[in-house]
Design a protein that fits this description.
Strand content: 15-25%
Helix content: 10-25%
Radius of gyration: 24 Å
Largest sheet: 7 strands, parallel
Number of helices: 7
Number of strands: 20
Structural class: alpha/beta
Order of helices and strands: HEEHEEEHEHEEEEEHHHEEEEEEEEE
């Protein structure tokens, strides 16, 4: 993927994965950077299969983790395989009990204290809540997710596999501070099983969607096997990896800025709904958010190459506070873009090549506002004799 080609691989990002356990003997985990692990079910520091547990106890977590962290070129490359990982075993697959949600809360508090800045959790709690309680603040996991976001962690959790009916979410994906992740297939179409919103208090969920149909992962209980799984359990680690890549590119961003960048540049940012949320994320667009985009065309509508473009902002009250971005030059199709434009009012400045046979027809030094990244076309008129 383009992010990896540009060296954005998750390096420097500490992320936590909460699940049923993790067996790390597979070849795809030989380069895993493990920072810490803890089993909140058995209360010890080993997250693999414990004596007395069912042999398949860690399978779900082992497979989901590989979507982010696996590395076996030619077989599987996880989205953020160079991130550093905290692993927490919170689920007892032999039964569904309230203590599992307590474990989830304890794990996220522990990981936050260790410095985790991204969470991926393919878990959902429904058995002990009523529909009206999916309001973002009632469940203890939802409250913990909200607090984690306030403290700087971006949390991705699965919406569940109860679709296609509306209001089929589980906690904590409906929390204000948690990104609820739905599933799409390779064509971008929503998976029928993907749970839908809205929340009990009418907010849009899911927040985003990602590949959750035939998603590549390792085969648990093997050393060299690979598989493809379905479910929002798979779309969630895909999104966890995406979040880690964006945080890798912009470690200075807050959790809220990271979330805003992902939503603002996703495929349905202009029309979010309770099936797709804000849509499929675009990693590179998110890393460039907010982006000023320009196109210069001639009277025939053809792009004009070689125009130098930059932005300026002058401070208020005649203060000498002028900021100038690094100039960019339009390409052969007339396009130019400036990434990560700080919020504010900017004047677009541009300069034609000395031999360019054009005069500025429109758009000369037009003030523009770039809070979310906008596009503007400039029309150039031929010089009149």
């Amino acid at each position: 993927m383009e992010a990896h080609r540009q060296g954005i691989t998750g390096r420097g990002v500490l992320m936590v994965v909460l699940d049923s356990g993790f067996e790390l003997s597979h070849e795809a985990y030989t380069q895993l950077d493990l920072f810490a692990e803890y089993d909140f079910v058995a209360d010890d520091d080993y997250t693999g299969c414990e004596p007395g547990e069912r042999r398949g106890q860690p399978n779900h977590g082992t497979g989901c983790l590989s979507v982010i962290a696996g590395y076996s070129p030619g077989n599987l490359i996880g989205l953020a395989h160079e991130a550093t990982f905290i692993l927490a075993k919170t689920e007892d697959t032999s039964r569904e009990v309230i203590r599992e949600e307590d474990n989830w809360v304890a794990a996220i508090e522990w990981a936050e204290r260790l410095g985790a800045r991204v969470l991926s959790s393919s878990l959902s709690y429904k058995d002990w809540y009523e529909l009206y309680e999916y309001d973002g603040v009632t469940s203890i996991a939802s409250r913990a997710g909200n607090r984690a976001q306030e403290l700087g962690m971006v949390c991705a959790t699965s919406t569940g596999n109860e679709g296609p009916q509306p209001m089929t979410l589980g906690a904590p994906c409906e929390a204000y501070g948690v990104l609820g992740i739905g599933a799409v297939d390779s064509t971008g179409a929503i998976a029928r099983f993907s749970s839908r919103g809205p929340t009990a208090d009418g907010r849009i969920k899911p927040d985003l969607v990602a590949m959750g149909v035939q998603t590549a992962c390792i085969e648990p209980q093997s050393e060299h096997g690979y598989s493809r799984w379905n479910g929002t359990s798979l779309s969630t680690p895909v999104m966890g990896g995406v979040i880690a890549l964006v945080r890798c590119a912009h470690p200075e961003w807050s959790a809220q800025e990271t979330i805003q960048a992902l939503r603002s540049t996703a495929s349905r940012a202009d029309r979010p709904d309770n099936t797709y949320g804000w849509g499929i994320p675009d990693v590179m667009a998110a890393t460039r958010w907010p982006e000023g985009r320009f196109r210069f065309v001639d009277q025939d509508g053809d792009g004009v190459e070689g125009i130098r473009v930059w932005l300026e902002s002058t401070g208020s009250n005649d203060e000498e506070d002028v900021r100038i971005t690094i100039p960019v030059t339009t390409d052969a199709t007339g396009y130019a873009s400036i990434p990560n434009v700080p919020e504010g009012t900017w004047q677009v400045q541009f300069e034609l090549a000395s031999d360019a046979p054009y005069l500025v027809g429109e758009f000369e030094r037009s003030p523009m506002y770039f809070p979310d990244g906008h596009s503007r076309t400039c029309y150039l008129l031929p010089v009149q004799d």
